[in-house]
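User: I'm writing a short report section on ligand binding and want a predicted complex to refer to. Could you take this sequence and N,N,N-trimethyl-histidine and write out the structure as tokens? A short remark afterwards would be nice.
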Amino acid sequence: MTDAAAARPAVDPAFRADVLAGLAAPIPAVPARWLYDRRGSELFEAITRLPEYYPTRTETALLERHAGEVAERTGPGQAVVEFGSGSSAKTPILLRALRPAAYVPIDISGEFLREAAAALQAGFPDLAVHPLEADFMGALALPDAVAGLPRLGFFPGSTIGNLVARTAVDLLRAMKETLGEGSRLLIGMDRIKDVEALLAAYDDPDGVTAAFNLNLLRRINAELDADIPVEAFRHRALWNEAMSRIEMHLEAVRDVAFSVAGRRFAFAAGATIHTENSHKYGYRDSRLLLRAAGWGVAAEWTDDKEWFSMLLAEAEPPRFAP
Ligand code: AVJ
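Assistant: Sure. The structure tokens for the complex follow:
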């Protein structure tokens, strides 16, 4: 193997397929999960520290304030199952208050998963940590070691907001299947708020979010044998009122043509590649979404401005009533 080949990351066939299909689609779009390579994850971490990006800070404060109430409602000795654990700083806050018997972080990126699990284990030497490298979009078998323990799912960050309602319900239903009857789910969901605050959070003046979005083009160039002129695109964040979501796009600033993995693509000035949705929910919206997937809301905590909310849901038993 040459040095150049060694330095190039192995081609992920799913990434290649999503990009080729997405760029050729009538409304060009690339699934948001591909934003999170090593550099993308670092840029997202930088976003969470921006003054304009309120979700992380608000949710962390909610957890600090209310983790004790979560513990009272759920009891000790549980298995905490975190979906898409990444490198979350929120987990220790929950674990300190909860005193669970086990912690199961689930992530598709084995590298991140093992790093995060090791760091967490160091802070909680007595906790049984069982990392699970898997795609949590489908129902999963949890490690045998947590069989018989009551389960609390943890899905912070309003990651659910990346998904359109149909897919979000599929995911919430899969989580219910993974966790089982009688389980609970602690989930963060971002609220609808004034558009100025939303746009500032997704189009910061320092351009960190722009760099995060544009990094997708660099990643395509680096991993998929592409020659996209990155400077021919700019970051666009917009509020889609009808869909109640922030959308991120990459907009061509001039007519541009390029190739990806041997295929040619052309974008006229003003045309966009849709790269992410971030849905926002009202008081009833979050309940309807959860209920559609078999979860009832037992408690909800929000900040003074009602900008972000943390909900404790309970798996509804199957019912025969209409
Ligand atoms: C990680 C999906 C919750 O939608 O707010 C932040 C990602 N994108 N700024 C979000 C994101 C642009 C973030 N989530």
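A remark for your report: The mean pLDDT is 94. The longest strand covers residues 233-240.
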